[in-house]
Write a structure and sequence with these properties.
This is SBBP repeat-containing protein. With 196 residues, the protein is mainly beta. It is built from no helices and 10 strands. Helix content is 0%, strand content 37%. The chain has a 4-stranded antiparallel beta sheet with strand order 3-4-5-6, with no helix packed on it. A 4-stranded antiparallel beta sheet has the order 7-8-9-10, with no helix packed on it.
Length: 196
C-alpha cells in the first residue's frame, strides 16, 4: 500500500526568549539553569534567561519574596565563574571545580529582579572534593532567606561557630543556612550522625 505524502505548512519561527534581559541571552555552559516568566492571562512568554557559567548549572528551587519584587533561587554548579557577585558570602571557587570528578559540585544562591536581571549570587562551598546540593529556599517573617540542602563537604563554610553542630558528623549531612537578601550569611547549622 503506498504511503500518503503529507506536506506541512511552514512553521513560523519565534525567538525562544523574547524580551530577554541583557544578561543571560546565550547559554554559557554544557547545561545552564533558566528562568522563564509567563503571562498568567494568556500563557505567553514575557521573558526568559539562562543562568550559569562555563560548566553545568542546575536550579533546584525558586522563591519570590513577600513584597513580590525579588526572585530567589538555589541550585548546584560546576562553574567557577558566571555565578557570584561582589560582596557576597563566597565570591570565588577554585577553577579546578570545573575539571573535578562528576560527583563534585558546589551550590549557589542567587537573586533576580522581576525583569530577570541578576541582583546577587554567591557560592555556598569552595571544596573541589565534595558535593553540596541546595534543595530549597524560603523567606522568614524577618526577611531572611533560609536555605536547606545536603552536603558531604568536610569544610566549615556551611556552619558557624554558634550553631548546634558546627562540623560534619557523617558522610553526608543536612545543612540549613540563613542569608540576608544581599547574600551575606547570618548563621548555618549541620545535622546528621556518624552514619550520614
Amino acid at each position: 500500500m503506498p504511503m500518503a505524502r503529507y506536506t506541512f505548512p511552514e512553521q513560523r519561527r519565534i525567538p525562544i526568549w523574547p524580551r530577554m534581559p541583557p544578561q543571560g541571552q546565550t547559554k554559557s555552559g554544557s547545561t545552564d539553569a533558566f528562568l522563564l516568566k509567563i503571562d498568567k492571562t494568556n500563557g505567553q512568554r514575557v521573558w526568559g534567561r539562562y543562568f550559569g557559567g562555563s560548566n553545568a548549572d542546575y536550579m533546584h528551587d525558586i522563591h519570590i519574596d513577600r513584597a513580590g519584587q525579588t526572585i530567589y533561587t538555589v541550585g548546584q554548579t560546576k562553574s567557577a565563574s558566571g555565578i557570584s557577585t561582589p560582596g557576597t558570602f563566597i565570591e570565588t571557587v577554585p577553577a579546578a571545580l570545573e575539571t573535578s570528578a562528576i560527583t563534585v559540585r558546589s551550590t549557589f544562591f542567587a537573586s533576580f529582579d522581576l525583569s530577570g536581571t541578576q541582583k546577587m549570587g554567591t557560592y555556598l562551598t569552595t571544596s573541589i572534593a565534595a558535593m553540596t546540593i541546595a534543595i530549597s529556599v524560603t523567606q522568614d517573617n524577618a526577611g531572611n532567606l533560609n536555605i536547606m540542602g545536603q552536603s558531604n563537604d568536610a569544610g566549615a563554610a556551611l556552619a558557624t561557630n554558634c550553631t548546634y553542630k558546627p562540623s560534619p558528623m557523617g558522610s553526608t549531612d543536612v545543612f540549613v543556612n540563613q542569608f540576608t537578601p544581599p547574600g551575606t550569611t547570618r548563621l548555618g547549622d549541620l545535622s546528621g550522625n556518624d552514619r550520614g
